[in-house]
Amino acid sequence: VADCLFCRIVAGEIPATLVRRTERTVAFRDIAPQAPTHVLVVPRAHHENAASLAAADPGLLAELVLDGAAVAAAEGIDGPGYRLVLNTGPESGQTVFHVHLHVLGGTALGHFGAPTGPAAG
Ligand code: AMP
Question: Residue 20: phi, psi to the nearest 5?
Fold first, then answer.
């Protein structure tokens, strides 16, 4: 998709630190890591979010989860545990509308994200 950042990373037009490639997925390090391990797993095909991907190609959503687990194992965080996140829509913090699975770990993570908007507190 034109002007999609992650389509351009998949195409090799924008550099990224790739950690895993499969026939249908690519995984690369987040440019602004929120944990010692912070990797994004994306399908090569453009889908806007997790639900639209699940509707269009449920097997591909499962591949993202399995790739996330493979990345976690390669990073040595499958034992202690890791978090998989699929932000959906602006209030979740989704900024790139090409579905991406965040793989976060390497430290003890807080329990859920804290609200930061008007409802906080
Ligand atoms: P989200 O906020 O869930 O849409 O996640 C988008 C993520 O993409 C953020 O964590 C960004 O830090 C990350 N990101 C943005 N641009 C790049 C890039 N060029 N390479 C790697 N990660 C990026």
Answer: -165, 140
Atom of ligand 1 nearest to the CA of 34: 10
The neighbouring-strand residues paired with 25 are 43
* Cα distance between residue 8 and residue 96, in whole Å: 12
Model confidence at 112, in pLDDT bands (50, 70, 90)? Answer: confident
What CA–CA distance (Å, rounded) separates 103 from 29? 9
**Catalytic: 100?**
yes
pTM for the model stands at: 0.94
Which residues have C-beta atoms less than 6 Å from ligand 1?
5, 14, 16, 28, 30-32, 40, 87, 93-96, 100
